[in-house]
Amino acid sequence: MTDTLTKLAYQTFQQGKSYFGFTHKTLSARLAKLIAPPREVKTQPISPELLQKGQQRLDELLETDWQDAENGVYPASLLFDHPWEDFFRYYPLVWLDLPKIWDRVSRKQYQEFSPDIDTEGYPSYYVQNFHHQTDGYLSDESASLYDLQVELLFNGGADPMRRRILAPLKRGLSDAFADVPPRQIRVLDVATGTGRTLRQIRGALPKASLYGMDLSPAYLRKANQLLSELPGELPQLCQANAENLPYQDNYFHGVTCVFTFHELPPEVRQRVMEECYRVLQPGGTFVICDSIQVFDLPEFEPFMENFSAMFHEPYHRHYITDDLVARLENAGFAEIATENHFMSKYWVARKP
Ligand SMILES: C[S@@+](CC[C@H](N)C(=O)[O-])C[C@H]1O[C@@H](n2cnc3c(N)ncnc32)[C@H](O)[C@@H]1O
What is the mean pLDDT of residues 304-331? Predict the structure, then answer.
């Protein structure tokens, strides 16, 4: 009875997020048509059948999310983890930010930053207004809007997609390190952004030592704030480039990386994988979650093409046909498996 009620509550919660995201996108597109300066974007039409299939994949994702909670991969409370305070505080700013985005898009400006932002020292591929983000990843305002924008984009599916890394990560850890006390297990989330993935990992691994790194000081400040809300949490965050991880060899039992590889140039993807391999212990598990790719879901190519065309994602078009299994093998990984859920793909690999 309790389970039935909890499942119903979860479905209602997700349905609310889904309607909200859909309505937000419909209204903002209408407003853009009315008042935004003209922009030239060639997009592919999405048929009602394809939209229906997208909805079906979202429903399947939510069912898997529920099942993983039922099976004890993480507590059901994690399904309801939502930054409500940030939602009420920053949702109006999402709308206020739109005119700035429209203006930059109409002027074809994709590397424009506020004058007070210091872009010195970052790799050039990084100094971009990814998905037209005002100030890219380099301001506190951007960090405050990011989680909200991602949830709106995926109609409430972002955290359920992040949570799909948890079952393979836990399985990998228990297969290889069953004799290591839970407190001595170390997991690193590479390019952790605002720390949403670390919050999910904490739900699944309540005792492990969790580490996060990212290139953006602003996003790490936000991660520090959000993770510190968790009772007893001491966020171990570090600002660095994932091409050169500031950790010793063979240190972590697990490494994760979510929604980042599509934002890296091909040769950087390879270097980051090599670094993840270096810092993992033999037997350690590496789990990647990123966008879907063409060879798994060819019928979803219009969604992928539109994502490349409508959002500023300079490396996404290459990414959707990049063979990450081959890259993982080149880095030294073995036992590589892949999965797909909704709009994301997963690679699970082991360091021999
Ligand atoms: C799309 S966000 C994903 C953030 C987070 N993993 C999530 O699940 O939302 C990409 C993140 O990668 C970080 N990033 C990009 N290139 C990086 C690099 N070379 N080294 C470290 N972080 C990087 C950005 O600062 C940003 O926080």
Answer: 90
- Tens of pLDDT, residue by residue over 277-301, are 999 999 999 999 999 999 998 888 8
Average pLDDT value over all residues in the chain: 93
193 lines ligand 1 (CB under 6 A): yes
Q: Is the CB–ligand 1 distance for residue 285 below 6 Å?
A: no
Instruction: Write the Ramachandran bin of 313: left for phi over 0, alpha for psi from -120 to 50, otherwise beta.
Output: beta
148 C-beta closer than 6 A to ligand 1: no
| Number of DSSP helices (H) and strands (E) in the chain, helices first | 12, 7
3-class secondary-structure state, position 216 = coil
- CB 153 less than 6 A from any atom of ligand 1: no
Q: From CA 72, how far away is CA 49, in angstroms rounded?
A: 35
For residues 107-128, give the mean pLDDT. Answer: 91
d(CA 219, CA 180): 32
Smallest CA separation from ligand 1 atom 27, residue: 193
Three-state secondary structure call for residue 321: coil
**If we measure between CA atoms, which residue out of 3, 10, 4, 5 comes closest to residue 59?**
10
Distance 285 CA to ligand 1 centre (A): 20
CB burial of 162-193 (b: ≥16 within 10 Å; e: otherwise) equals: bbbbbbbbbebbeebbeeeeeeebbbbbbbbb
Report helix, strand or coil for 258.
strand
* Span from the CA of 93 to the centroid of ligand 1 (angstroms): 22
Task: Assess whether the C-beta atom of 242 lies below 6 angstroms from ligand 1.
Answer: yes
Task: Evaluate: CB of 197 within 6 angstroms of ligand 1.
Answer: yes
The tens digit of pLDDT for each residue in 235-267 reads 999 999 999 999 999 999 999 999 999 999 999
